[in-house]
Amino acid sequence: MSAANPTNQPRPPAQRKQPLEPPEDAVAPVRHPEAPAPGEPLGAHYGQCFGCGGEQPHGLHLSATAGEGVSVTAEFTVKPAHQGAPGLAHGGVLTTALDETLGSLGWLMHVIAVTGRLETDFLRPVPVGTVLHLEAHVTGVHGRKIYSTAVGRIGGPDGEVAVRADAVFIEVKVEHFIDNGRDEEIEAAMADPDQVRRARAFEVNP
Ligand SMILES: CCCCCCCCCCCCCCCC(=O)SCCNC(=O)CCNC(=O)[C@H](O)C(C)(C)COP(=O)(O)OP(=O)(O)OC[C@H]1O[C@@H](n2cnc3c(N)ncnc32)[C@H](O)[C@@H]1OP(=O)(O)O
């Protein structure tokens, strides 16, 4: 018996770990014709987002920029509030920065997607005050599944890789948020015409 599966019963399909590599019949990601041009900042997808929101005082305030193809770059400055050990970034916070960067790839395809699976490798400790230079791109698309990978470098955009991650995001409709989010935040988001327009525009994906 393993600790992770104490009864040793086979897991139902929905609970099995899904591969992080695109399957052989995956297709290449398609950049939407109206995607922001390379070099353009993407802005926040939601002001209260812990990863990117400007109105979120406790957040990472990560800022992402469109790259070539279906890729993005982003920067995240590690603050004292992000510590795990003295003077070092918390691993979960670094994973959040990777998650947010990978999540922003949806903007380039005009697809709304949520994280299904995310695996992080921590290669170097990241001190407080460090600017983490992130790069992410989509490696393949299979139905609603979007496979992607990211690295975070320290000491500059070409510096040493401190963290890396592979992920599968799953495409969803706006209803995913409306049906599952707490009413007060959903109502506030729905009352913001810019938020609704931005989210609905993503559902038309030629
Ligand atoms: C007015 C308001 C506007 C708001 C506008 C917001 C705009 C923009 C927001 C962007 C936000 C990003 C923010 C950062 C990224 C997060 O942090 S997202 C938050 C963390 N993630 C979550 O909360 C997701 C929780 N999980 C779920 O809700 C559901 O499990 C999912 C992921 C939607 C999937 O459920 P489902 O739709 O029922 O999918 P299902 O039909 O079972 O599976 C479809 C396929 O996906 C695969 N799959 C399903 N789950 C997984 C999984 N966990 N791992 C791997 N593969 C999976 C299945 O195997 C299946 O594959 P195929 O059989 O087609 O080959």
Give a verbal description of the structure:
By secondary structure, the chain is of the alpha+beta class. The chain has 5 helices and 6 strands. The chain has helices at 91-103, 106-109, 175-180, 183-190, 193-201; strands at 63-66, 71-77, 113-122, 131-142, 145-154, 160-171. A 6-stranded antiparallel β-sheet has the order 1-2-4-5-6-3, covered by helices on one side. Strand 4 and strand 5 form a beta hairpin. It is globular, with a radius of gyration of 18 Å.
Number of domains: 1
- Category from helices, strands and their pairing: alpha+beta
Order of helices and strands: EEHHEEEEHHH
Helix percent reads 10-25%
CATH class: Alpha Beta
CATH architecture: Roll
Q: Tell me what portion of residues adopts beta-strand conformation.
A: 25-35%
Strand order of the largest sheet: 1-2-4-5-6-3
What is the tally of beta strands? 6
Spatial gap, N to C terminus: 49 Å
The CATH homologous superfamily is termed Hotdog Thioesterase
The number of helical runs is 5
Name the average pLDDT. Answer: 92
Please give the radius of gyration in angstroms.
18 Å
